[in-house]
Write a structure and sequence with these properties.
heterotrimer, A alpha/beta (385), B mainly beta (131), C alpha/beta (348), A: 385 residues, alpha/beta, Peroxisomal Thiolase, Chain A, domain 1, 2 domains, 9-stranded mixed sheet, two-stranded antiparallel sheet, 18% strand, C: 348 residues, 3-stranded mixed sheet, 14 strands
C-alpha cells in the first residue's frame, strides 16, 4: 500500500449560516482545499455527513455534491458513522489512494443543522444512540454524557470545576480561531452558573448546533510535488474501532474502549507512543468527553483525566496540547464535518500555519473523532519532516 | 417517532421484560440477541429479567424532547439488575436529591409517550426507588 | 361459587390537598372538607393512566397468589377513563402479565361501578366453567371540571382481582345487581369533563341504588348487618358511604378499614374495589365482608364474601393498600396538578 499525504485543506466559517445551503458550504470548503492543494481535478470523493436526510431531507449526497463541485462523473460516496463520519470519510479516502485506485481524492465533511428546529435537531442527533433502548426511554445526548460524567465523578472524584476548566481552555483556544462559531472566552464561574441541561452538564459544557464544512485532499506521498509546494503532511496511521451502541452495555460506563482500541491500533501502525504526540484534536462534544478520551488515548492515566485542563497540561503550551483549535466546544460541531476539521487543524499546525494557536515545533499530530457515546472512534496520526 | 409495527415488535421487552439467556455462557441479553456478545453462541432461551437492581449512574434531564415536556425535568439512570442485565430508563416517583449511585430501584410499568392526541400510546418500563 | 384467588391495589404517589384547590377558586376549604369529609386526593403522574395502574395492581394480585398467568381466561377492566376510546385497555394489561393469546378481553364502563361489573362477570364465567381464572380490574384517572365540586374528589387508583373456581382467600357467597335508568351523572362523547345533576345525585341516585341492592342482597343471603365483620360501599366522598352504611344498620367500625376516600378521593371504578383490598389487608379467616358499589346512570353491584384461612398466608407478598396510601406521598400544587392532568391548553 502506498504512503498517503494531505496536500490541501479548506474550511468555511462555522456557525448559524442562514444564507448558505448544505451544498453551498460543502462547495466552499472543497474549493478552498482544491486551491490550497493546487490540483485541477479530483478523482474520487468521500463526504462525511451524519444525516443530511433528517436535517435537510436530502440523501444521495455523493452525487449531489460531486455534481455541484463540478468535478465530472467521479465516484462519490457519503460515509456515515454518526459524529465520526468525517474521520471515517477521510479514512476511506486514504484507502482509495493507498491501494492505488486514485491519486487525488477529496475527503469532505458537512452538516447543515439549522434548517430544522430544536426538536428536529434533537431527534436527528438522537439517532446516534440506541433508539429503542436509550432514546425511547427519554435520555437525550447531553443526558447520556451526563450519565458518563456522574459515573466518572463518582468513581474518580472528578469535579464540576474540572469539567468547566475544559470548556474554559477550549474557548480560550477558540477565541484565536477565525473559523470558530463561538470565539469568546469564558471563565469557570460562567460555565458553572449557566443553564443546566442534564445534571451536571450546563449549556457551556456542551458543544453547539452548527452549520459547517471542511475538506482535505490526499494524494500519494511520492507524488506531492507534482501538485503543490505545500509541505506534505504524511498520514502515519489510520485506525477505527467500534463499541456497543448503548452506554449501558459498556463494561465501564466511564471508559471509552473504542477510543482505546483505535488509539492503540494507531500508535502501533505509526510505531509511536503517547509521549511522541505534539498535539491532539479530540472529540469534546461535551467536556466530560475530552476527559475520557485523553485517558483512553493514554495521555493521562485511567481516572486521572479530570485535572488535565485545570492543571494547564492540555493548554497550547502544555505537556500535551489538546484542542488547540478550540475543540467542538468553541469551534462548533457540525456533526459530519468535525472529523475533517480536526484534520484541517492538525495539517495547519504541522505546516506552521496555525497563527495565534500555533503549537511550537509541532511535528506529529493526532486526531480522534467519535460517534455517539463512543460507539465508534476514528483516530489518525500525521507527521512532517 | 414510533410506528405501530416498530412499537409492537418490542412489546415482549417493554411489557414483559423478556431477555435471552445464552445457553453457552449463561449471560442474559436484554433485548434478546441472535449472537451472544460474550461467547458468540447462537442458542438462547427466553427468560424474564430481574426486576430489581441498583443505579450505576443517573442524571436529571432539564432540557428534553417535546414529547416529554409534561414531565420535564425528569431523572434517567442506568441500572444493573440483580441478574447482571443493565438498562437505561427514566426514574419516576423520586426526589432528585435522593438520586445516588448504588440507589436500589425496581422496574415499573409506565406510559412512555404518545403519538400526539390522536396517535398510539406507547408504554414501557421505568425505574422507581425501592423504599 | 367462585372465590377471590388473589387481589392487589395500586395508588399513585402524588397528592393534592383540598385547600390547594379551594384557594385557586376562592372556595371555602373547611366547608368542603367538612361537607364531603375529604382532606386530599391522589393524582396520577403524566406517565400513569388506567393501563399502567392496572398492570401494577394485577402484578400485585399475581404476586399474592402465584398462579400461572397463561391460565387467565378473561381480562376485564372497568373504568371511566380508558386511555383509548376504541382499543381495549385490557389487551395491554393481558400482554403485560402474560395472559395472551388464549384469553377473552372486554373493557367495561358504567360510571363508578365498572370495576365491580368486571368482578361480577368474571365470577359468573368462572361459575359457569367457561374460564379457569378471570382477572377483574377497577381503575380510573377520572377528571373533574376545574372549579367544580367534583374536582376536589376525582382521584386515581386501581384494584385487581383474580377470580377462580376455588375458595381462594375469600369465597364469593352471594351477588346481586340493581339498576334503573337515572340521569344523575354522565359524560357525552367528545366532552372533556362529566356533568352532574347536583343534589339529585344523592337520594334518588346513590342512596336509592346502594340501598336497593344492599337490601336485596341481605334478603338473598338471609343475613343481617351484624353478621358482617366489614362493609365496603362506593366512596364518592367521605360522607356518603358512612351515611348509607348507618342507614342500613352498619357501624362506623365495620366501614372504617375500607374507608379510603378521605385521603384517597374518589377513584371512580376503583372506589369500592380498592376499599375491599384495604379490608382484605386486615380481615381474619371466617370474617364476612359486605360490598356494594355504585355507578351513576345508575346501578349497584353487591357481593357477600367470606374470608378463608388462605388470606393471612399470602397478603404480605404485595404492598398493602393503606401503606401505598399513607406513605411516601408527594404533595403537588394546583399548577402542577393542572399540568399533570392536561387541563392547560397548549400550543399546537
Amino acid at each position: 500500500m502506498r504512503d498517503v499525504a494531505v496536500i490541501g485543506v479548506g474550511m468555511t466559517k462555522w456557525g448559524e449560516l442562514w444564507e448558505k445551503s448544505l451544498r453551498d458550504i460543502f462547495v466552499e470548503s472543497a474549493l478552498e482545499a482544491v486551491n490550497d492543494a493546487g490540483v485541477d481535478k479530483i478523482e474520487a470523493m468521500y463526504v462525511g455527513c451524519m444525516t443530511s436526510g433528517l436535517f435537510v431531507g436530502q440523501e444521495h449526497l455523493g452525487s449531489l455534491l460531486s455534481d455541484y463541485l463540478g468535478m465530472g462523473p467521479i465516484p462519490a460516496l457519503r460515509v456515515e458513522t454518526a459524529c465520526a463520519s468525517g474521520g471515517a470519510a477521510f479514512r476511506s479516502a486514504i484507502f482509495d489512494v493507498a491501494c492505488g485506485a486514485h491519486d487525488v481524492v477529496l475527503a469532505g465533511g458537512v452538516e447543515k443543522m439549522t434548517d430544522v428546529g430544536g426538536d428536529g435537531a434533537t431527534f436527528a442527533l438522537s439517532t446516534a444512540a440506541d433508539s429503542e433502548y436509550e432514546v425511547y426511554n427519554g435520555v437525550t445526548f447531553p443526558g447520556l454524557y451526563a450519565l458518563m460524567a456522574v459515573a466518572h465523578m463518582d468513581k474518580y472524584g472528578t469535579t464540576r470545576e474540572q469539567l468547566a476548566a475544559v470548556s474554559v481552555k477550549n474557548h480560550a483556544n477558540g477565541s484565536k480561531n477565525p473559523h470558530a462559531q463561538y470565539p469568546f472566552e469564558v471563565d469557570v464561574d460562567r460555565v458553572l452558573n449557566s443553564v443546566m441541561i442534564a445534571d451536571p452538564l450546563t449549556i457551556l459544557d456542551c458543544s453547539p448546533i452548527t452549520d459547517g464544512a471542511a475538506a482535505a485532499i490526499v494524494c500519494p506521498l511520492d507524488k506531492v510535488k507534482d501538485y503543490t509546494k505545500n509541505q506534505p503532511v504524511k498520514v502515519l496511521a489510520t485506525a477505527h474501532a467500534t463499541d456497543t451502541i448503548a452506554l449501558h452495555s459498556r463494561k465501564d460506563i466511564a471508559w471509552l474502549s473504542a477510543v482505546e482500541k483505535a488509539g492503540a491500533d494507531a500508535y502501533k501502525q505509526a510505531g509511536l507512543e503517547p509521549k511522541d504526540i505534539d498535539l491532539v484534536e479530540v472529540h469534546d462534544c461535551f467536556t466530560i468527553a475530552e476527559i475520557c478520551v485523553i485517558e483512553a488515548l493514554g495521555f493521562f492515566e485511567r481516572g486521572k483525566g479530570g485535572p488535565s485542563a485545570e492543571s494547564g497540561e492540555t493548554a497550547i503550551g502544555g505537556r500535551i496540547p489538546v484542542n488547540a483549535s478550540g475543540g467542538l466546544k468553541s469551534k462548533g460541531h457540525p456533526v459530519g464535518a468535525t472529523g475533517v476539521a480536526q484534520i484541517v487543524e492538525v495539517t495547519k499546525q504541522l505546516r506552521g500555519e496555525a497563527d495565534k494557536r500555533q503549537v511550537e515545533n509541532a511535528k506529529i499530530g493526532m486526531t480522534q473523532n467519535m460517534g455517539g457515546t463512543g460507539g465508534s472512534s476514528v483516530v489518525h496520526i500525521f507527521g512532517v519532516e | 417517532m414510533s410506528t405501530s409495527a416498530r412499537y409492537w415488535r418490542e412489546i415482549p421487552q417493554r411489557y414483559r421484560y423478556e431477555g435471552g439467556r445464552c445457553k453457552g455462557c449463561g449471560e442474559v441479553s436484554f433485548p434478546p440477541r441472535v449472537v451472544c456478545k460474550s461467547c458468540g453462541s447462537r442458542e438462547f432461551e427466553t427468560v424474564e429479567i430481574a426486576k430489581q437492581g441498583k443505579l450505576l449512574t443517573h442524571t436529571v434531564i432539564r432540557v428534553g424532547p417535546s414529547q416529554f415536556s409534561d414531565q420535564t425535568p425528569y431523572a434517567v439512570g442506568v441500572a444493573e439488575l440483580d441478574d447482571g442485565v443493565r438498562l437505561t430508563a427514566m426514574i419516576a416517583d423520586c426526589d432528585f436529591e435522593e438520586l445516588k449511585v448504588g440507589m436500589p430501584v425496581k422496574l415499573e410499568f409506565r406510559k412512555i409517550r404518545d403519538e400526539g392526541e390522536a396517535g398510539i400510546i406507547c408504554y414501557g418500563y421505568k425505574f422507581v426507588p425501592v423504599r | 361459587m367462585a372465590g377471590i384467588i388473589g387481589y392487589g391495589a395500586y395508588v399513585p404517589r402524588n397528592r393534592i390537598k383540598v385547600e390547594e384547590i379551594a384557594k385557586v377558586w376562592g372556595a371555602d376549604a373547611p366547608s368542603y372538607k367538612k361537607g364531603l369529609m375529604l382532606r386530599e386526593k391522589s393524582v396520577p403522574s403524566p406517565d400513569q393512566d388506567v393501563i399502567t395502574m392496572s398492570v401494577e395492581a394485577s402484578r400485585n394480585a399475581l404476586a399474592r397468589c402465584g398462579i400461572d398467568p397463561s391460565k387467565i381466561g378473561a381480562v376485564y377492566i372497568g373504568s371511566e377513563s380508558h386511555p383509548y376510546a376504541v382499543k381495549p385497555s385490557g389487551t395491554v394489561v393481558a400482554e403485560a402479565i402474560g395472559a395472551t393469546p388464549d384469553c377473552h378481553c372486554v373493557d367495561f364502563e358504567f360510571a363508578c361501578k365498572a370495576g365491580s361489573e368486571a368482578m361480577f362477570v368474571t365470577m359468573g364465567l368462572v361459575d359457569a366453567g367457561a374460564i379457569e381464572y378471570g382477572l377483574a380490574i377497577g381503575a380510573d384517572t377520572s377528571q373533574g371540571a376545574p372549579g367544580d365540586a367534583l374536582e376536589y374528589s376525582a382521584a386515581a387508583g386501581a384494584a385487581a382481582y383474580i377470580v377462580g373456581k376455588a375458595d381462594g382467600v375469600a369465597k364469593v357467597l352471594y351477588t346481586h345487581s340493581f339498576m334503573t335508568d337515572t340521569p344523575d351523572f354522565w359524560r357525552r362523547e367528545h366532552m372533556h369533563y362529566p356533568r352532574h345533576a347536583g343534589r339529585f345525585t344523592g337520594e334518588p341516585a346513590y342512596f336509592k341504588h346502594v340501598t336497593g341492592c344492599a337490601k336485596a342482597l341481605l334478603e338473598k343471603s338471609g343475613m343481617e348487618p351484624e353478621d358482617f365483620a366489614y362493609a365496603v360501599f362506593h366512596q364518592p366522598n367521605g360522607k356518603f358511604p358512612m351515611r348509607v352504611g348507618k342507614q342500613l344498620g352498619f357501624t362506623k367500625e365495620q366501614i372504617e378499614p375500607g374507608w379510603l376516600s378521605p385521603t384517597l378521593g374518589n377513584t371512580y371504578s376503583g372506589s369500592s374495589p380498592m376499599g375491599l383490598t384495604a379490608t382484605l389487608d386486615i380481615a381474619a379467616p371466617g370474617d364476612k365482608i359486605f360490598m356494594v358499589s355504585y355507578g351513576s346512570g345508575a346501578g349497584s353491584d353487591g357481593f357477600v364474601f367470606e374470608v378463608t384461612d388462605e388470606l393471612p398466608k399470602m397478603r404480605e407478598r404485595a404492598p398493602f393498600t393503606r401503606t401505598q396510601l399513607d406513605e411516601h406521598k408527594n404533595y403537588i400544587d394546583y399548577g402542577t396538578y393542572t399540568k399533570f392532568r392536561k387541563k392547560i391548553r397548549k400550543g399546537e
